[in-house]
Amino acid sequence: MRNLKTLMKINYGIGQISDGVMHAAWTGFLVFYYHQVLGLPGKMAGLAALLALVIDAVTDPMVGHLSDRLKSKFGRRHPLMLLGVLPFLLAMIALFSPPGGLSTWALFAWLLTFAILLRLALTLFYVPHLSLGAEIEQDYHHKTSLIGYRIFFAYFGVLFVSVIGFMVFFPATAVYTNGLLNPAGYANFGLFCGLLAASAMLWCVFSTKSLIPSLSQPTETINILSSLLAFMTLAKTLKLPSFRVLFFILVMITTLAGVNSTLMTYLGIYVFDFSAEEIGLINASIILGLLLASLIAQTLSKRYDKKKALAVCLIVGSVVGFSPSFLYLAGFFEGIPWAVKFLLVFLANGISQAFFIALIILLESMLSDCIDVNEYQTGMREEGVFFAARSFATKASFGLGSFFAGVALDIVALPQGAKPEDVAPETAWELAFFTGPIMACLFLSVYFLIRLYDLDAKRHKEIMTEMAAAKSRL
C-alpha cells in the first residue's frame, strides 16, 4: 500500500486551489456583480447559476467514465486535468468582462454561456483530480490526511481570493463608499482569479506526473456511447447503501451552502454594515478553519469514528456559525462598539469554518471508504464514477442553492445598487432572519440523514483485509 510523502500530498492538494478560486469568485462576487452592479434581476442571476451547474453536473459522470477508462502513456487522469486549464482561464476572464450596453436578456445569455464554459472546464480537471486522490491513498485513516491537504488548499483558494478581492480590487472611493458597487475593479479581478487557478492546476498536473507509472491501468476500453450515457451510472452508485446516504447528505449540505455563501456578502454589507475591506478581513477568519479543521477531523474520527464525528461537526458548526444573525435579531449589536461586533462575527465565522471544513474532510474520506466497499463487491476500482456522482450532487444542489438565494433576494426586495444606509431596517431584519434561524434549522436537519450511515472502521478493516488476502492468492 502506497505511503505518500508530505511533499507529494502538498503537490496533489495545490490543484484544489482552482476549485476554491471558482467558489469564492462565484459566491462572493459574481452574483453580486451581475445583480447589484449590472442590474440583472436576482431570479435571473440565480437561474443562470442553476442552469450552468445542472448542465455541468450532467457531464460529470461522462468525465468520470472517461477518466476511469482512458488509456495513454500519461495515465488515466492527467490528460483530462491538463485539458481543462486554458478554457477555465478564458471563461473566468470573460465572466467578469461583459461588453457594455447589453440588454437584460443579452446579459443573462453572456452570464449563462461563460458560466457553463467555466464549470465544464473545471470538471475536466476536478473529477479526475478527485479520482486520483482516492487511487493514490487507500488506508482508512491516511485518506483523511490526504483529503485534509486537498481541502486545506481549496479553502486557501477561497481565503486568498476573498481577502485580495475585497481589500485590493474593491477599495472604498469618494464615489463608492462600498467598493463592491464600483464596476471598475471586476475585469482585473477576473483576470487575477483565472491566472491563479490556472497556475495551481498546472502545478498539480506536472508535480504529480511521477506517480503515473504506479497508478492502476483501465480494465475497460472507452466506449463513446457508454460515455455519453454515463449519466445513467448515477443509479448504479446509489445502489450502495452507504454511498446513497452520503449522496443525499451532500445534496442537503451543498444546497444550503449555496444559499448561505451567496447571501454572505449581502449580509455583511446590509445587515452588519461592513465595508468591502472589513468583509475581506472577516473572510480571513477562514485561517482558523484551515489551521484547525484537519486536526478536528482526524481527532474526532479516531475517537468517535467518522459517523459521530460528522454529526459533532455539523452541530457545532451550525450553532456557532449562525449565531451573529441571532444576536442581530435579538438587538445585541445595537449600541455596542464596532470592534466588539467585528470580533464576534470574525470568531463565529472562523470557528464555524473549522468545523464545517472538518465536516467536508470527513465526508470525502467516507466517500473513499464507499469506493473500497464497491471494489469488494464488484472487483472494480471506479473512483471516477463515484466522484462524478459526488460532483453531480454538489454542483447541481449548489446551483439550486444559488437559485434559491436569488429568489430570496427578490422576496426581501433588496434594492439593486443600494447603499447600506438606503436599505430599510425591515429589509435588513428579513435578510438576517433568513440567514439565521431558518438556515440554522435547515442545516441541523441533516443530522437525521447522518444517523442512517452504516459503515464503520471495523467493517472497513475487515473488507480491506479480505481484499488483500484475495489479491495475494492471485
From TrEMBL:
The keyword Transmembrane helix applies. Pfam families: MFS_2. Keywords: Membrane, Transmembrane, Transmembrane helix. InterPro entries: MFS_2, MFS_trans_sf. GO terms for molecular function: symporter activity. GO terms for biological process: carbohydrate transport. GO terms for cellular component: plasma membrane. The chain crosses the membrane at residues 12-34, 40-59, 80-99, 105-127, 147-172, 184-206, 245-267, 279-297, 309-330, 342-363, 384-409, 429-450. Belongs to the sodium:galactoside symporter (TC 2.A.2) family. This is MFS transporter. It comes from Temperatibacter marinus.
